[in-house]
Design brief:
The structure is a single chain. The protein contains seven helices and six strands; from the N terminus they run αααββααββββαα. By secondary structure, it is an alpha+beta fold. It has a four-stranded antiparallel sheet with strand order 3-4-5-6. The chain is globular and about 40 Å long.
Length: about 200
């Protein structure tokens, strides 16, 4: 049974609750927690990711034609005038959670074996590289770009200083349908959603 996804209006409360937990200590710990909570507890990925990240992955949950939440994935880009920035960010956050709790994503993410292979920090920016090995299909590399955050409420906010994911890139052999599913489970995004078999699309 699919878990219920929060509405856009309830997302701010969920984010505030998540901010009370102990944050990861650094970029590597942030990436490790990302994989730990991905699909298993998708709301907790929100505290690990930046607004820029959610604007980049492309998944959306807003049906622009009637203003209602869709059941799952993406909405056509450019079909309606752009939403205000904060509404667009919340829209993408809901789309991101929806993609994570799709049955095929939950199944595949549990099969992933992840090993951090490198990290570098330069001031308030960092890059972390991980090898992702699915149960079926070829291993691939997932690169994370992270930034130290001043906090969504500004400097001095409770979440100030946390490392947040700004962008994710994947590289390496895809390995057919199973490879696409594994990649989508490790990093749900609209481009991969379009390449999934019809029955597996969020």
């Amino acid at each position: 049974m699919r878990r219920r996804v929060p509405t856009l209006g309830g997302l701010a409360l969920a984010l505030a609750a998540l901010a009370c937990g102990a944050p990861p200590r650094g970029p590597v710990e942030t990436v490790e927690r990302y994989f730990d909570v991905l699909a298993r507890d998708p709301m907790r990925t929100l505290a690990l990711s930046s607004p820029e990240f959610h604007l980049s992955h492309g998944l959306a949950a807003w049906r622009r034609e009637d203003g209602s939440l869709s059941d799952s994935g993406s909405s056509p880009e450019g079909s309606q005038p752009p939403l205000p920035r904060q509404v667009e960010i919340e829209d993408r956050r809901v789309g991101w959670i929806n993609a994570q709790i799709a049955p095929h994503a939950v199944e595949r993410v549990g099969e992933l074996r992840v090993r951090v292979t490198g990290s570098e920090v330069a001031g308030d920016r960092a890059r972390v590289t991980a090898e992702v090995r699915p149960l079926r299909g070829a291993a691939f590399v997932q690169r994370f770009e992270l930034a130290r955050d001043a906090g969504e409420a500004g400097p001095g906010a409770p979440d100030a200083g946390r490392w947040r994911i700004v962008a994710i890139e994947q590289e390496g052999p895809v390995g057919g349908a199973w490879g696409h599913l594994a990649r989508f489970a490790a990093y749900p995004n609209e481009a991969l959603a379009r390449s999934l078999p019809d029955r597996a699309r969020p």
